[in-house]
Every structure is written in C-alpha cells, then in structure tokens.
C-alpha cells in the first residue's frame, strides 16, 4: 500500500515529539493515536474508493447496497438505513438518489405509511453489491497489511472505544 508520496519520516511521530517539547507530554500519546487513526482512515478509504471505481460506487454508496443485500427481502426503510449506517438522513437520501439513477435501488412508499420511504435493492444492485464485495475482499480487506492478531486487537480496542463513546449500547461480540 505504499505510494510515490511515501515519506522518509513519520510525521505523526514528529508531531508527538513536538507535543512533548512544548510541555504537552500527557496529551502527546493520545494526540498521536487520534492522528494516526485519522490517517489510517484516509489511506483505507482511498484504497476502498479505488477498488470501487470500476463499479462507479463510492464507499458510502457501497455500504448502503451491501446493507440492503444482507436483508432478507433486500429492502429497508430509509430511516432504518440511516440509523444502521450511522449517517444523517440527508446522506442516505443523496446516496439513494445516485444509486437510483444508476438503477441499483428504487424507492417505494411504505404501504402502511405513505410518508415513509423504503429503499429496495434491484436485481442489478444485488449483482453489483456481490461483485463489489468480492473485489473489496480480494483487493483490500484481505490485503490491508494488518497481521491477524493485529486485526483482533484493533477490533477489540476500537469496539471498546466506540462503546465508551456512546456509539452503541450492547457489549461487543465476536463475529
């Protein structure tokens, strides 16, 4: 996962040293951790976007069609999708607009409440979700560079952090 812009020194380690030099030693480690997590997120998102480019999907749109593909009837209320994806309803609406234009989903009013909207995965959307998932598994998820024990540790550490931050209530469970 290196690129032509690979640096010769770790700028986050340098920032941590600067924090210490400026008397912020106690905050230096957490600052470096937060900054490193944000940088890793940028790197992984860029890799995901590259893998999804042939499918004309962003990672946000992929997440939505993947979520729908895992449901029994390949459909879900827009409000529920927003909650599960942990994004604002406007973000789901924008993603649905693009996915609908691409023929991957369609909107249907809920029969019992015509104000509520259901997102339905189309046959093409189901195929695209499956192919995009296969590409992500092969070209990103199985090639992150993390060792298996690192993955387990990361999941555990980040799950505990998310729970403490109020991201979810129940205790993390292993898949």
CA-based shape: elongated
Main structural class: mainly alpha
Strand content: 5-15%
Report the top-level CATH class of the largest domain: Mainly Alpha
Spatial order of the strands forming the largest sheet: 1-3-2
Largest sheet: 3 strands, antiparallel
Helix-strand topology string = HHHEHHEEHH
Quickly count the helices.
7
What name goes with the CATH superfamily of the largest domain?
Winged helix-like DNA-binding domain superfamily/Winged helix DNA-binding domain
**What share of residues is helical?**
55-70%
Number of E strands: 3
Mean pLDDT: 93
What's the Cα radius of gyration?
20 Å
Quick summary:
The protein is mostly helical and about 180 residues long.
What does this structure look like?
Residues 30-163 form the HTH marR-type domain. InterPro entries: HTH_MarR-typ (IPR000835), Iron_dep_repressor (IPR022689), MarR/SlyA-like (IPR039422), Tscrpt_reg_MarR-type_CS (IPR023187), WH-like_DNA-bd_sf (IPR036388), WH_DNA-bd_sf (IPR036390). Keywords: DNA-binding, Transcription, Transcription regulation. The chain folds into two domains: 11-55; 56-142, Arc Repressor Mutant, subunit A. The protein has a three-stranded antiparallel beta sheet. The longest helix is centred in the first third of the chain and has 28 residues, at 25-52. The protein is mostly helical and 175 residues long. The protein has seven helices and three strands; from the N terminus they run αααβααββαα. The radius of gyration is 20 Å and the shape is elongated. A hairpin with a 2-residue loop joins strand 2 and strand 3 (113-121).
